[in-house]
Amino acid sequence: RSPGPAKRLGSSGTPKARTHSPATEMAPPPPAPTPAARLLREYGWDLMLGSIAAFYAVMVPYTKVEESFNVQAMHDILYHNHHIEKYDHLEFPGVVPRTFIGALVIAILSSPAVLIIRVFHVPKIYSLLAVRLVLGCVILTTLRLFRVEVKRKFGRHVEAFFVVLTAIQFHVLFYSTRPLPNILALALVNLAYSFWFKGNYLRTLQALIVAAVVFRCDMILLLGTIGAALLLVFFSNGSHKVLHKHCSFMHWFHGTG
User: pTM for this one?
Assistant: First the structure.
């Protein structure tokens, strides 16, 4: 009785070895991305927007009338420090009193660069440029937080459209380095939108309240619109008790909400 197909031997009397085609072999794993590739993947959009904003700041370094208050305030904080009697606003207070909070924050962040400029006796125009670039970094950092939430909620394609639309619109990146009250409020608005998309409604309201009280009173319109939308969401879900618990004035005031 002849052996079956499974027991047929080769010419040497040993079973034939199985051969594997290249298609059935496991493909090698893809190479690990280089540090430069990881950097571009994580911060490529930010580098593009930052480059455009920096180009605008360098090409148009001087300011307009509406920027004069914050520019003078930053100058006095950086160059006169605690000598408040030398501050320009004591002699020229302006028509409407304005806050120093935004100018103080930007001046503190830009103080290392301005200190180097002062040590080497570089003209003050470069201090103005340093202050504007720091302001642009603050605005673009908050814009990045908003963009990350856009990608998480809607995907990479919507994120790419968001970045391209921001890049081709002149005014967003041009004014991101200009110390206007609107731009200082924009940082808080970007934070509010990122908190809103993240589902942190209490932080959303807090950011908008600070923006309206400190920088722009007309932010109350955006605060009212988003607040009304959040109220509708909470009441439609039967969560008004949760809203009352987490958004009460005392919880917000003591920072325990």
Answer: 0.78
